[in-house]
Specification:
By secondary structure, the protein is an alpha/beta fold. Helix content is 34%, strand content 12%. It has a three-stranded parallel beta sheet with strand order 2-1-3, with helices on both faces.
């Protein structure tokens, strides 16, 4: 098992990418969270379909959620990843994530 790696800190103006790897959020919840992060001095990005629902309790298909997360990991303009919600759906996508890419990105999660 690799040694624990501490992620780098964030500076004001850094870009935070919002992911929904598990349960869905409403448009209103998303807008409220984005406004809070911007008020704190951060830039915010997220997928257009972040509020998608699948099976009533997931934020889209397993494939969509895993791709969304890995796009944020790979994007050099995103300095940290903020999960809109956690929960049941996370374990469904773990096998679709690239742990080497996540570790090497070193982004706070």
């Amino acid at each position: 098992m690799p040694a624990l790696r501490k992620p780098r800190g964030l500076k004001l103006g850094a870009t935070i990418g919002i992911a929904a790897p598990a349960g869905p959020i409403s448009k209103e919840q998303l807008e409220s969270g984005v406004a809070m992060l911007r008020k704190l001095g951060f830039e915010v990005v997220h997928a257009e379909d972040l509020t998608t629902r699948a099976a009533g309790y997931l934020a889209g298909s397993d494939e969509r959620r895993a791709e969304e997360f890995m796009q944020l990991v790979a994007n050099p303009d995103v300095h940290a990843i903020y999960c809109a919600r956690g929960g049941y759906g996370c374990h469904r996508i773990i096998s679709r994530l690239d742990p080497k890419a996540v570790r090497s990105a070193g982004k706070p999660l």
